[in-house]
Amino acid sequence: MSRLKPVTIVLALVLAMPAFALEPINKEPYINATLLQGFIADKIADNCPTLSPRNLRALNELEKLKNYALKKGYSAAEIRAFVTSKAEKARGKADAAEWLKEAGAVEGDGESFCKIGRDEIARGTLAGRLLKDKS
Fold this sequence. Notes:
Layout: H1 6-21, H2 29-47, E1 51-53, H3 55-72, H4 76-84, H5 86-103, H6 110-123, H7 126-129, E2 131-133
Antiparallel strand pairs: 1-2
Helix pairs in contact: 2-3, 2-5, 2-6
């Protein structure tokens, strides 16, 4: 029976540390902040008749976010489960609705959503970059 050398054990532990250090994907700040921006843009596009989504840009952003998550150590299965979860989608939509409400959006008042959307476009935020002005 062969014995593992101490350096081999230490190396194995060091290489495994990122996997142990991962927080749940639904708590990872960058991933959640990025997704929130997408949910905000979606809600604006759904409620403002003069702003529409930039679908190709959104798909590109999702691919970049997936690559970020993979590099952090999340598995493809974890990522897929997270983005297809009805509960997580509902949480994201609720967070976006709350953010928009705090920003001045009023349900049934499309112009309030349009104003926020135009402001986000002017500021160059991710939500703004995911929208285009049709007017």
